[in-house]
Amino acid sequence: MFKGKKILLGISGSIAAYKSVLLVRQIVKGGGEVKVVMTHAAKSFVSPLTLSTLSKNPVQDELFTENTWANHVMLGRWADVMLIAPLSCNTLAKMAGGLCDNLLLATYLSATCPVIVAPAMDDDMWHHPATKRNLSLLQSYGNKVIPAQYGELASGLVGDGRMAEPGEIARFLHDHVFQSGELAGKKVLVTAGPTYEPLDPVRFIGNHSSGKMGVAIAQELVRRGAVVTLVLGPSSVKFDPSGMVVQRVQSAGEMYDACMDAFNGSDVGVMAAAVADYTPVTVEKQKIKKQAATLTLELTRSKDILKALGARKQGNQVLVGFSLETNNEQENALGKLASKNADMIVLNSLQDEGAGFGHDTNKITIFKRGGEVLTYDRKPKEAVAKDIVDQIVKMLYA
Ligand code: CTP
């Protein structure tokens, strides 16, 4: 699996460092060569002796001692990939800010090879806006993130923040670095699911979107090597988030903000979410009590994410929108292609059996800028995702 590959493993201070020991073993067993650099904090969790024995290479942890200087530049040049696992919150923040106060950071800053990180932290730290911002910064530097997972945490709590298992990290390395697909190095923003517009603490205005189509597209993009940010509305669809940064949002406003950030530096945007067109003017702090026989709600237009991205799109970015219609399908889809400055509109019509919300299948027609129209049979959403990504690849490399 890793024959002839050189992997530089950075270990920072987290209890998840015990999994790095198993990871080293797995990579070496797979024919790879591993060199380890670790922070001082990491040594409190795993011993350099264990790691040097398993990697068959000395472990380095000092930038310099009284009379030696560690050549961090050459370490970075030696490696085919630098993997930082576990990535603690502290090391993440330092990497995002460009700090250089230990060997791991100096090596990271001078590495010319691809860099992959596998964060590990507690649930609240994982969800802190500073962590999200720091991870996005790393991604904007071209680093790939193996997302933390849900599960039992060192604090005893159960939540997000658990480092991916060694087997998954090894698989990610193999799939994303050593066997890159046609979208390797491309960054893609995908939106999926419905949005919920709050009315009061217990009610919202929503829609029937399940998020299945957008998630299937995100997974297909990851499979072809892209780095995906999935901005996901309140969907309960189960999926493997490996290789994606998933940002959960509730309302159209939150989705808009997340997309405006993430689209900068992206090569492609795929807007598969069913975004509410209107949102309540006021959100009541207390539950609305029933009184008169009728109730009038005042709604205001929500911001159109696809349109806003279409307006700021740079020449080399590809923007894909969806169009869910019940009538005048072709005319409406073509209208959206033009008015939202998209490169491609994927039409699904509720007139077609097995198409649209909630189904495991979909039937689409693709309208491309330039006039090409492609019609497809009804298929499982995973197969539809392949068709859509095929067309994205074509547009990207046209
Ligand atoms: N969209 C968006 N932001 C909105 C509304 C829609 O980004 N506030 C995107 C959807 O994700 C989709 C496309 O715009 O990619 C078309 O969405 P659709 O609901 O079909 O059309 P609308 O623009 O809402 O127009 P209409 O309601 O008139 O059909």
SSE topology:
Elements: E1 6-11, H1 17-29, E2 33-38, H2 48-55, H3 72-78, E3 81-87, H4 89-97, H5 103-110, E4 115-119, H6 123-127, H7 129-140, E5 144-145, E6 149-152, E7 158-162, H8 166-178, E8 187-192, E9 197-200, E10 203-205, H9 212-223, E11 227-232, E12 244-248, H10 252-263, E13 268-271, E14 278-280, E15 299-301, H11 305-312, E16 318-325, H12 329-339, E17 344-349, E18 361-362, E19 364-368, E20 373-375, E21 379-380, H13 381-396
Parallel strand pairs: 1-2, 1-3, 3-4, 4-5, 8-11, 8-13, 11-12, 13-16, 16-17
Antiparallel strand pairs: 6-7, 9-10, 14-15, 17-19, 18-21, 19-20
The chain binds cytidine-5'-triphosphate.
What does this structure look like?
This protein is α/β, with parallel strands linked by helices. Helix content is 34%, strand content 24%. Helix 1 runs parallel beside helix 2, helix 1 crosses helix 8 and helix 3 crosses helix 5. Bound molecules: cytidine-5'-triphosphate. Cytidine-5'-triphosphate binds next to helix 11 and strand 16.
Key traits:
Rossmann fold, globular, five-stranded parallel sheet, 398 residues, binds cytidine-5'-triphosphate, alpha/beta, eight-stranded mixed sheet, 2 domains
Briefly summarize what is shown:
The chain has 398 residues and is an alpha/beta fold. Helices cover 34% and strands 24% of the residues. The two termini are 33 Å apart.
Secondary structure tally, helices: 13
Report how far apart the termini are: 33 Å
**In the CATH classification, which architecture of the largest domain applies?**
3-Layer(aba) Sandwich
Computed CA radius of gyration, to the nearest angstrom: 23 Å
Judged by helices, strands and strand pairing, the structural class is alpha/beta
- The global form is globular
Report helical residue fraction. 25-40%
Report strand order across the widest sheet: 12-11-8-13-16-17-19-20
Q: How many domains make up the 3D coordinates?
A: 2
Main beta-sheet strand count, sense and barrel state: 8 strands, mixed
